[in-house]
Amino acid sequence: MISFREKSLWVSLLISLVIASVYGDNILAFLAAGEAVSGQDISGLIFRVVIAFIVLEVVLHIALAMKEQEGSGLPEDERERNYRLLANNVGYWVLSIGVIACISQQMINSSFGFEVQNEYTNLALAPFELKLVVIFWLSEVARFATELYYYRQES
Fold it and tell me: Of 7, 48, 54, 104, whose CB has the highest number of CB atoms within 10 Å?
């Protein structure tokens, strides 16, 4: 039987994947538009994604807790704590490497003065905040997937 915490991880992972697909579709549309995208459009996208993520997480976790009332209030045991810490470590490394790579890329872009030539340079010249949200999403997905891996490895 799957524990409440594992079900909660599955819910978070699926929400992350759905929201990320919507976000990725919008980013591709922004990149296709080139320099015609305003900062207000980017801010609006990020705001909508964050609000959608929060609302879906809260609503689905409330529904899950209502269904599994006896399992939702149990304290975390040593095994679950170990899984969470190992997964947080993986997520932290993904986030750290991604942020350093993003900052390095921005420094290189500003030093060499790249111009939009094709879709690859268009991606490299994408606004900094769009890339940071992608990096954050990747770190969260890595964290959820790693913790789920440890739960599934046990069973």
Answer: 7
Total number of domains constituting the chain = 1
Give me the domain span that covers residue 99.
4-154
Contact criterion met (CB below 8 Å) for 102 and 132: yes
Q: Both tokens of residue 11?
A: 């819910």
CA–CA separation, 96 and 38 (whole Å): 28
- The whole-angstrom separation of Cα 71 and Cα 3 is 7
Dihedrals phi, psi of 74, to nearest 5 degrees:
-70, 140
Cα 115 to Cα 81: distance, rounded to the nearest angstrom: 48
Tokens standing for 53?
């993520």
DSSP H/E element including 52: helix 39-67
CA distance linking residue 138 with residue 19, whole number of Å: 12
Residues in the chain: 155
| pTM exceeding 0.90 | no
What DSSP character marks residue 74? Answer: P
